[in-house]
Amino acid sequence: MRCLPLILAAALAAAPAAAQELGERTRSPESMLAELGLAPDADDLDEAIAAAAAHPLGTAENPVRVGGPDGERAYIARLRCADGSAPRTGQRGSAGVGAFGTIVDAYPLDCGAAAPGQVTLVMDMYHSEHREDRAPPGFTLSPR
């Protein structure tokens, strides 16, 4: 399983580019993983999720699970700082391989003078079946 993240990173980086060159519509990240034979085993994923629960949500050890880039944007749009305002969002960056064996994204968030101040939110977009209804420490979530 140790070399899986490296294989996964290479496959995920190449697949969307190849599909776009052919003019095809890209598929969900989960279906691409399944086609490549790299989809995580359900039992392994369940164990990883249970282990991640020991860490704060939104960290590298327990990334927020969402479905694709749209899921990332939708989740961030629901986040509220302690004063009820929406955090300012910086540019998304890669945070390497996360707790669930997939590439994770890091978003800098800034609540200004309100708590929690400046933080980095880590998200894993390879979980389209999951809808996160918890907020990371210091934040709340607005209703859907």
Gross morphology is globular
Low-confidence segments? none
What amount of the residues lies in strands? 15-25%
Number of domains as seen in the coordinates: 1
Radius of gyration (Å): 16 Å
How far apart the termini lie comes to 36 Å
Structural class given helices, strands, pairing? alpha+beta
Number of strands: 7
Number of helices: 4
SSE succession: HHHEHEEEEEE
Query: Residue-averaged pLDDT, rounded?
Result: 83
Please explain how this structure is put together.
By secondary structure, this protein is α+β, with helices and mostly antiparallel strands. The protein has one domain (4-141). The chain is built from four helices and seven strands; from the N terminus they run αααβαββββββ. The protein has helices at residues 4-21, 29-35, 42-52, 68-78, and strands at 64-65, 79-80, 88-89, 93-97, 103-110, 118-124, 140-141. The strands form two sheets. Strands 1, 3, 4, 5 and 6 form a five-stranded mixed sheet that branches. The longest helix has 18 residues, at 4-21. The termini are far apart.
